[in-house]
Amino acid sequence: MIIKRKEFIQIGSLATASMLLPKFLKAFEGNVMVPAGNKVVVILQLSGGNDGLNTVIPVRNDLYYKARPRLGIEKTKALMLGDEAGLHPALTGLKELYDDGSLGILNNVGYPNPDRSHFRSMDIWHTASQSSEYLTTGWVGRYLDAQCKGCDKPTQAIEIDDILSLSMKGENIKGIAVKDPQRLYGTANEKFFRDVMKNYKDEPGEQPVDYLYKTMAETLSSADYIFKQSRLHPTKAEYPKTDLGNSMKTIASLIFSDINTKIYYVSLGSFDTHIGQEGQQQRLFTQMNDAVKAFVKDLKGNGRFNDVFLFTFSEFGRRVSQNASGGTDHGTANNMFLISGGLKQKGLINELPDLSDLDEGDLKYRIDFKNVYATVLNKWLNADDKAILGKKYDYLDFV
Amino acid sequence: MSLTNQIKNQHLMWRAGFGPAVEQLGDLFKYSPKQIYKALVKASEKKPEYINVADDYLQGLYMGIEEAGRQQKKEMSEDEKKIRQQKSRESIRNLNIYWLHEMVNSGAQLREKLAFFWHGHFACRNLNIFYQQLLLDVIRRNALGNFGTMLKEVSKTAAMLNFLNNQQNRKDHPNENFAREVMELFTLGRGNYTEHDIKEAARAFTGWTSNPKGEFVFRKFQHDYGSKTVLGQTGNFDGEEVLDILLQQKQAAKYIAQKIYKFLVNEQVEAGNVDWLADRFYKNNYDISKLLEDIFTSDWFYQEKNIGVKIKSPIELMAGIRRMLPMTFERDEALLLLQRALGQLLFYPPNVAGWPGGKSWIDSSTLMMRMRIPQMLNDRDEFNVRPKDDDDQMMGSSSSLRKNDVNEDPKATAMKSLKRLNKPLQVNIDWSLYTKNFESIPKEALLANVTGILLQVKSQVSQDLIKQYSDNSGRDNFIKTATLQIMSTPEYQLC
């Protein structure tokens, strides 16, 4: 662990802010630490259930074209990854990453007894629960719980959004949602809130009101901290002027600073393409492709691509057969993109879906997503995956 | 420190209802908690009216369902289906706003509060407005009645049977979802049954389904008439008998009593109190009214350690503000946006386990949002937060809306929806009812009085600070602005 003095001094206002803060936050304010290598994870959630079969297309599989006479993407249009599979035509940037050796694809990721409702399946992915259990904390949140007991660092996990996802909520520590660092800073600097905070006296004994003040103090100081950090090395690179483009730009600027953030979380949607799938998926993929492409270029230009691991997921894939409205209905297992300069496995990591062996028209999962989480937590973030996931899951070899 | 009747009565009104209403402020000093509780019970005696807010078009379809069935009419076209789903979603929004209105304005506070509890207990997502209305009716009618009766009625609603996939639960092809949740979430709690019990119970529920009108249907050819063993008892049970077996377990009384205790009294359970309640609840054959009387007339309910320790849920927060400050919204949409941004949208629980409550309501975003609400209601702050999309609620509508204009610039669409939010909420607060309560209060005692009515905990925020942020240009202006400032503190999040 290296204590970086440089930015600690630069974030001058923290010193003033800390005088307003009760004692439970002092530890946090005094220890802005950046672990060696400063490896971070970026999670890109594709909300609504992305159609994996039209993402990584099994171009030599007749069953695919038979099931999708209208929606199937022809081999000539797909961006070929070797002989068997091709990427959706909009994903040109990801094709470059594939050629470059910095894209990995996991096929058939899912979980036992899959649920086909959006919220429940998303719940399962967010909490990393079994499909028969209900957890009220998210896996990233529990990472926060495990990583910083008593150190109150909500900025270890940041969601680029106005609202915090369940995955980011731990039992004791919750990540922080920031759509725009400047706006959050503005809200938090509302003078009344600052003054209310100043008034607060931390008395012995943990009352519910202390929890509220603690959250408020964390929010105010985090807002300050994130805003200042985002201004340290703001990226000069060009990003697409989309929601996701802006979000990736914010993430890049924070990665280039020395903020203590380990996990960034951002969503794109809606991929719920029951009808008119072609246009909708094309649009969203173009946004994703352009934003990710700019992000990777920026990271490479700043020598940080090896430290960043980005992965995508969706709550489920879609039915193998197209429906009657030019779309697809809710399905089960799906693929995940893994993007990093530090991948150990590249390209198509495992076999494409077996379309001749379906479960009532849906793909069977081969990899439990919790194995992916365990791998990321243990191998990339050096965290105690067993404590966080509540169970030991075997590691995969992609990092 | 001895507690005043005022603070005890406010405590009772927050827990047995949605907080004191502006017209009740005078009563807070006049009566004892016992008298107030009696009045609350009386005001909730009447059977609630069935709420029907379904769109006319849907109403027509609904009335014609049986007719259509008889004539074997052809299936609805895709477009008709879309329209129906769209209208159903809109109607569920109306149901949300209507019920929230009841929570604010109904005299039957105890009934609506418990219905709100059962709404979270029998959590269910279903996009059919009629099914939702029927389930809500079961819950509101039985909210203060018998738990066993309610359990059986809920178990036979189309909303719940569909939500928990029981239409797929057939002889030789059991679907265990319904049986599992009935045991895990509705009656016993995890760890009080085995996987084998679930398998066997699922067989008893085979054939339980509903018709398109939402009426319960028992399909006898899908029912498994064989012998089952559930929780040690063996017989050719049907679903109803399995529910009876569950209710025979003392654990069911304990599970429900504890959950109600956490909801109405304190998240921190005191085992002695809960055991005592559970015992009596069981002996009283699951009579909910008696359970509530045990709680609200006990001495421990009014102990200081149980006052001001609950984090208001978003619905409680919003209803509570509206009860104290009567207000009208130019756009009802605002009420839904606030619910979504704060993480509790009625009729859209996160899962069948309901809203987890307690500390889970509070994170950096929701806390700042909560503290900004009073100024938003006063049109001094804009609603510039974009709640997350809920794909179940949308049902792919975001793409369906654009079906015919594939070339429309998605950015333009996104901007449109964003713009809609970056606006004041446009609320009109009727202050006169509120401010007149303080007419006889001397100026120097004004702030202490306002604070006393609004907060259930000792405030960390000094009077000087509130004064500094209040408009001192006149008595009424001072009351208004001080009220909004106090509502913008962490303390106001508690009840």
Tell me the major beta sheet of chain B. 2 strands, antiparallel
Distance between the termini of chain B: 19 Å
Q: Specify Rg of chain A, calculated over alpha carbons.
A: 22 Å
Number of domains of chain A: 1
Rg result of chain B: 25 Å
Oligomer status = heterodimer
Largest interface: A-B, 66 and 63 residues
Structural class of chain B: mainly alpha
Give a quick account of the main beta sheet of chain A: strands, pairing sense, barrel closure: 9 strands, mixed
Structure commentary:
Chain A is an alpha/beta fold and 399 residues long. Chain A has a single domain (2-389), classed as Alkaline Phosphatase, subunit A (3-Layer(aba) Sandwich), CATH 3.40.720. Chain A contains 14 helices and 14 strands. In chain B, helix 7 runs antiparallel to helix 8 (147-155), helix 10 packs across helix 11 (195-204) and helix 23 (446-454) packs parallel to helix 25. Chain B starts with a helix and ends in an 8-residue tail after the last helix. At the A-B interface, helix 6, strand 9, helix 8, helix 9 and helix 10 of A face helix 18, helix 19, helix 20 and helix 21 of B.
